[in-house]
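Morning run. Coffee first, then this:
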Amino acid sequence: MEYMKIFLNGGGCGPQTDAVLKRFNEMIDRTKPLLYIPLAMERERYPGCYEWIQDELREVDVPRIEMVTSAGELARKDLDGYCAAFAGGGSAGAIIFGRSLESCAQDDKNDVGMKGLSGFDVLNGVSLLCHYTKHTEKKDRASTIYLTELSKQLPALALPEEDTIAINGDEMNVMGTGPYYCLQNGVRETREAVQ
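And here it is:
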């Protein structure tokens, strides 16, 4: 039985993700193309997004990278034909895999008026915040206060840009160079990522 493999990045790129991309390259079926989903970005940025993903994944050994530009196009894809799907657009590609999008409400305002804030919940009830500790000290403190309060109802993981959650079936590790943070019942605990 093939287990689902998911990599949820804290929002980093370039040298911040080199080690994770090496591990990703080892785990995928390199005979299949990779599907790139930039739907969290503005449509006019898609050409630049495609250039970025090709450069970002230049060391990943796949025959090609295919990009979808609409939800309808994505719905028509047979995902079994791809080695992986890369959801991009800032950190949105990772955050949607948590339990709730409420974890990023302090950093990303709901300008489009979304009513349903449920994510895919692949982290067993845990929500996710990315780009943690990247901002000013004041903004990071506000995020910490918000997440700590939210964690009384919704446990959360806060990832810095250089960390990635790697899920392989039932196994989950946080890979990277920075500490990450687990928030539950109003308490924030610092943990070290593995390299």
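The chain has a mean pLDDT of 86. Good start to the day.
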